[in-house]
Amino acid sequence: MADPSRSSADVREAGPNDLAAVLRLYRQLHPTDPELPDEQSAEAYATILRTPGMHLLVLEHGGAVVATTYLNLIPNLTRGAAPYAVIENVVVDAGLRGRGLGQRIMAGTLQAAWDAGCYKVMLSTGSRTPATHAFYRRCGFSGDEKTAYVVRPARG
What we know:
Blueprint: E1 11-13, H1 19-29, H2 38-50, E2 54-61, E3 64-74, E4 84-92, H3 101-115, E5 121-123, H4 130-138
Parallel strand pairs: 4-5
Antiparallel strand pairs: 1-2, 2-3, 3-4
């Protein structure tokens, strides 16, 4: 088995052939989401891949995509015009958790943000699991600097 503390060199931008693997991981992240028709998934995925500032990252381990994050780089007019980033949809294959793969993909994701000149990276989680919060703290995130709020459209 590969050493989980290895560098994040196996973190890469998702490519056209990674859609099925990303969707498989997203089913683990949000199992109650409705499945999209293939055409709609492919269209949304192609939009993500071609949109500047949007980076869907994957981690390969043992020849398979086993983790993913979504890094959004946001232009900014404060902080000397340094961009900031938001990370979403962090997921490691359920059968491989606890092996350091999450830390590897997060290290690669953060490095991509720093390489883009970001002055900060934010993420929010809906998880109430203490282990999830401990994981993000181990990755360098602080839960004490900002307060996040979420609003969703009313369903009528």
